[in-house]
Specification:
Elements lengths: L1 H26 L8 H18 L4 H23 L4 H21 L1 H4 L5 E2 L5 E2 L2 E2 L3 H23 L2 H11 L1 H6 L4 H27 L1 E2 L6 H14 L5 H18 L9 H19 L7 H4 L4
């Protein structure tokens, strides 16, 4: 039971990083992306490749993964963010579809459909984190750092510029804001921090394949953000915890057909998002709930 709880908390922490980084561009910049799983996958595959071919050091594998994810997001953001939001959604969906094909076919890097197995434990200053609670501490520290970075950014002039663009691009442009640069930087930062979650996931699971980085994952993370509460620090964490706990909770309901649990989850996600949009648009943890303006 202890091992199960540790595993669950580690996965919740990883998905909390994912939802927090997506919330940075959704909640504070008003940029909706369906490609978050792409940067999650880039982080995972790059960290695995570096660990298996160079070194499993956290301070080597993770930074390389973050840089590669940032460069990839730059290729997406520069052309797509010159236009209004709906075009970026379409571009991000296209990137997601392309990435799934690459992840499935690039066997030399991703292992193809079979994925990558035998990823060595991550090392911190030469110490291999082989015990689950060791990895839990690392994951929680990373989550805390990501939250601290984003919390600091949203209270700087850069963060205020993001929120002004979210509220009204026309007004921000009239105020002299370089909208394209600001939005591009926010996407690059979000994507690089997302790669951190990917690297943690790869090291923890010791096995990865394309199934973890498909469109369904991007939609799941977006659901975590919307259900938890956009434009807040706590909201994405609450959303991640609820949606990661849901599968386990459903498995205890014996009257539900176990073969249909996945479909039931999707119905619950969709219903929850629709109901929240109607009755609580800010999510479970809205800015008013926290006494914090988005």
């Amino acid at each position: 039971m202890t091992a199960y709880i540790l595993n669950l908390v580690v996965l919740i922490s990883i998905y909390a990083i994912l939802s927090t980084t997506l919330n940075f561009i959704i909640g504070y910049a008003g940029i909706f992306s369906l490609a978050h799983a792409v940067f999650f996958g880039i982080g995972a595959y790059t960290s695995a490749f570096v660990a298996m071919n160079l070194t499993p050091s956290f301070f080597v594998a993770i930074p390389i993964a973050m840089v590669l994810a940032a460069l990839t997001s730059l290729a997406l953001a520069l052309p797509a963010l010159r236009v209004r939001g709906e075009y970026f959604v379409a571009a991000s969906l296209g990137l997601q579809m392309l990435a799934v094909t690459l992840f499935s076919e690039w066997k030399g890097f991703t292992g193809g459909i079979g994925g990558v197995i035998g990823i060595p434990p991550v090392e911190i200053f030469g110490f291999a984190l082989v015990k689950p609670w060791h990895f839990l501490i690392l994951t929680l520290v990373c989550l805390a750092l990501v939250i601290a970075i984003i919390q600091r950014l949203v209270h700087t002039s850069f963060g205020r510029s993001l929120k002004s663009i979210r509220d009204s691009e026309s007004a921000a442009l009239a105020a002299g804001k370089n909208i394209t640069v600001i939005k591009t930087l926010s996407v690059v930062l979000s994507s690089s921090l997302t790669a951190l979650a990917g690297g943690l996931y790869a090291f923890y699971m010791a096995f990865i394949n394309v199934e973890s980085f498909m469109l369904a994952t991007s939609v799941l993370v977006m659901a975590m953000v919307i259900i938890g509460g956009t434009g807040t620090i706590l909201g994405p964490i609450v959303g991640a915890a609820l949606l990661m706990l849901l599968p386990g909770a459903l498995s205890y309901l014996s009257f539900l057909p176990q073969t249909e649990i996945g479909s039931i989850q999707q119905i619950i996600y969709g219903s929850a998002m629709v109901l929240l949009m109607i009755y609580r648009p800010g999510g479970i943890v809205s800015p008013k709930t926290r006494g914090e303006a988005a």
